[in-house]
Write a structure and sequence with these properties.
Shape: globular
Radius of gyration: 12 Å
Order of helices and strands: EHEEEEH
Strand order of the largest sheet: 1-5-4-3-2
Oligomer: single chain
Strand content: 35-45%
Number of strands: 5
Length: 95
C-alpha cells in the first residue's frame, strides 16, 4: 500500500503557538517532537508534520492508508481550529 502526502498552507501569524499546543496536547498519547518552528506527531493513521512560517502554518500529513486521508485531515484541522478559536476557523487548503 502506498502512503499519501497532503499539505496545507494555513494563513496565520500564530503558527508557532498552534504547532506547539498541538504537539503538547498529543504528547501524552503519541510520539511527538517539536520546537518553536517545527514539529511532528506520529498518529496511528500517519504523521502530521508542521512548520511555522511568519504568516502561515504549513501542515504536511503522511498517511499510510489512502482511505484514511480525509479523516486525518479532519482530525488535525479540528484540533488546530480549537486552539485558534480567537482567530476563527483556519483555512485549510489541502493539496
Amino acid at each position: 500500500m502506498m502512503s499519501v502526502t497532503r499539505t496545507a498552507r494555513v494563513p496565520t501569524e500564530k503558527g508557532s503557538r498552534y504547532l506547539q499546543q498541538l504537539c503538547k496536547h498529543w504528547s501524552h498519547k503519541f510520539e511527538t517532537a517539536f520546537d518553536e518552528t517545527q514539529g511532528h506527531v506520529d498518529l496511528p493513521m500517519g504523521r502530521a508534520a508542521m512548520v511555522a512560517e511568519p504568516d502561515a502554518l504549513v501542515v504536511t500529513l503522511t498517511v499510510d492508508d489512502p482511505e484514511k486521508v480525509t479523516r486525518m485531515e479532519e482530525v488535525v484541522a479540528s484540533h488546530l481550529d480549537r486552539f485558534a478559536f480567537r482567530e476563527g476557523p483556519l483555512a485549510f487548503d489541502w493539496n
